[in-house]
Structure formats: C-alpha cells, structure tokens
Amino acid sequence: MSDRRTPLYGAHADRGAKFTDFGGWQMPVEFDSISEEHAAVRGSLGVFDVSHMGEIEVSGPDATALMNRLTTNDVTALDPGDSQYAAITNAGGVMLDDTVVYRLPDGIEAGEGADALAGLDRDLDAGSGDPAYLFVPNAGHDGQLYDRWVDYRDGEGLDAAVANATDDWAMLAVQGPDAADALDEATPADRVAGLSKFEATVAAVAGADSWVARTGYTGEDGFEVMCPAGDAEAICEAFVDAPRAAQPCGLGARDTLRTEMGYLLSGQDFDPESEPRSPYEARIGFVVKLDTEFVGRDALEAQKEEGVDERFVGVRLLDRGVPRHGYAVTDGDLTRVGQLTSGTMSPTLDEPIGLGYLHEHYTEPGTEVSVVVRGDEKRAEVVIPPFLDR
What we know:
Layout: E1 4-5, H1 9-14, E2 18-22, E3 25-30, H2 34-43, E4 46-49, E5 56-59, H3 63-70, E6 83-89, E7 95-104, H4 113-116, E8 132-136, H5 142-156, E9 161-164, E10 169-175, H6 179-186, E11 200-205, E12 208-213, E13 222-228, H7 232-240, E14 247-249, H8 251-261, H9 297-306, E15 310-317, E16 328-330, E17 336-346, E18 351-359, E19 368-373, E20 376-383
Parallel strand pairs: 1-3, 4-14
Antiparallel strand pairs: 2-3, 4-10, 5-8, 5-9, 6-7, 7-8, 10-13, 11-12, 12-13, 15-18, 15-20, 16-17, 16-19, 17-18, 19-20
C-alpha cells in the first residue's frame, strides 16, 4: 500500500472516488465511471488531479548545461514560458523516463518555485538572474531523478541548485474542447487564452498564482495548472463546481484517453528493467537532438544510423477480444513478432485497441497480424497512432 497522498485526497474521498495505488501514490481511478469521464473529456470538460507527477527545480549559472546533459532535447531553445517534451536516457540510450521541461521566469531559485510564483510580475521577460527550469518526472520517479541530477552535477563540478519540490506543488489537468473557455473564465483577461501549445505563463487561477501550461495527455485541447499545494482544493473546486461543472476524472479515463492517442506510459510502455527501449524504438525520435552532448547521445547516434529491430505501433483487433499488456503479437501462424505493452476497449471508437513493439517488418499501417488473447489468435491490423484524428 502506498503512503503518498496528493493535497486533494480528502476532496476526492468526499466525492466518492475509488482509489488505486499508482507509483507509490493513492490516486483516484474513477469517480463516476471511466466511460463517463472519458466522454466528458472528448466532448466537453474534465479535470484530473495529477499531483502525483514529480517536480524537480533546477537553477543557477550552469542550470542550462545540466539540463542539456541529462535530457535528450535542447533546452537552449527555450525562452521563459516555453516548454518541451524530452526523454531521459542512460549511457546506452535506454529511456529512464520521459518528461516535460519548463523554462521558468529567470531568477527563481530551486526550492522556491511554487512559492515564488506569488506576486511575480506577469511579464516573463521582466525577470532577471540565472535561468530556472522545472521538469516533471513521472509518478514515483522524483527521488531517483533528483539523485541523478545531483550526482551528475557534483561529478562534473557544475554550479546549479537542484530541488525535489514534488511536495510543494500540486498539478491539475483541465482538458477538453471547453478547456480554453473554462481557463479564460477562471483567470484574468488574456492571460491564458492566447497561449500556444507548449507555452506557459504565470496567472492567477481562481485567485491563486499558478504556472499554467497549454499541455496535456489526452489529445484534446487543455491546460495543466501547477500551483502551491495549499491552493489545489480552491482551484479544483473552481472548475468542478457550477457554473463550469467539469467532470472529475481519475486515472482510468486518463489511461483510455492516452491509449487512443498512442501516448507512452512510463513503467509500462517503456521501463529500463522490464521494457528497455530507446526513443527511436518508442517512436519519439523527434525529442533527440544529436547536436547536444547528453548522456546516451553516442548510443542513440549509432542506433539512428543502424536502425532498430522493433518499433512502437498500435494494433486494432478485427475479432472479438480485448488486448492487454503482455499479450503476444504473431504473424497469424503462431510465429511471435512482438508484444503489447498497453491495451483497452476504446470508449470513443468502441473498438479494441492496443500499443506495443513489433518487428520492423510488421510496422507498416494495415499490416495483418494476430494478438494472442487467452490462447487464441485474434486477427488485428497495424495502426500508426493516434487512433483518433485530433
């Protein structure tokens, strides 16, 4: 049983949430039903508590160098208010985690990020001082990656402060076609409506100074609101209560939504121990910038030149059955050609869909394969995610 709880645990319990242990946290898996919550996000508005995600703050003269050594993307491309998706790899190019990196207003010191938002000038260019970053590890990885950043910093003699601020921040994901209108109503005029995808800003959400980013994990338009932990309940109530009446959503709908989009789930679609994969195998090679000197660069450069044997794809079952994590994929004649890492019945499409790694010869869209469901080969076809046109 996990012993970590988000600042909203009590509010979730009052709303009748069913909980599950996820990444060392007690998290709501559903409030009403997964299908209702899924439909609300696809059709209107849902709000998720994602405070189980980690927050690591990095600042100081060598903060940019440290971030560039330990993530695969190029943080020098970020201005304050920008963010980017990246992988974190070991020396062999195997993904330890994936993450989003935010460039905070300059001058924020690591360990003060959430509190420092209060009273900040809303002009991100008005700050001065050393660069500051916030990156978001997946649930349960914050301690491991904090240690990795500190060890590398000390080993290389870099001048940067690193703080595991996971307990200081809360994070809410406000997702769906109505998300922009809901955020616009909850914030001062023109603070968030003009944000582009992967842009962020400081804004008062329901009166609480927050870091608001136009990012998400559902495929719909949406925002992630990061705030001091003590402000989480007031912000959540501002969306869930009338007149906005956002549907509270749990991890069940989060999983079906991300599976329809083909988004990776750390610890399941890749894991350094049980499912060791590189960004190229996982089909996120676009986050690898080989002109930077990050840990794992040489291994990934060689892999890019040589190609990969297996690649991450989707499958759609043509026969009855539901694909699940760990199910074998065959050529229809009992020869194994890959394995699924995720699977579900798509609530939007009402079709069984899965994600996993297949031999490169079987990754073309429309290729006929089979998924072994309870000992039976079920006909399927290969799909390059997303399954939905978003």
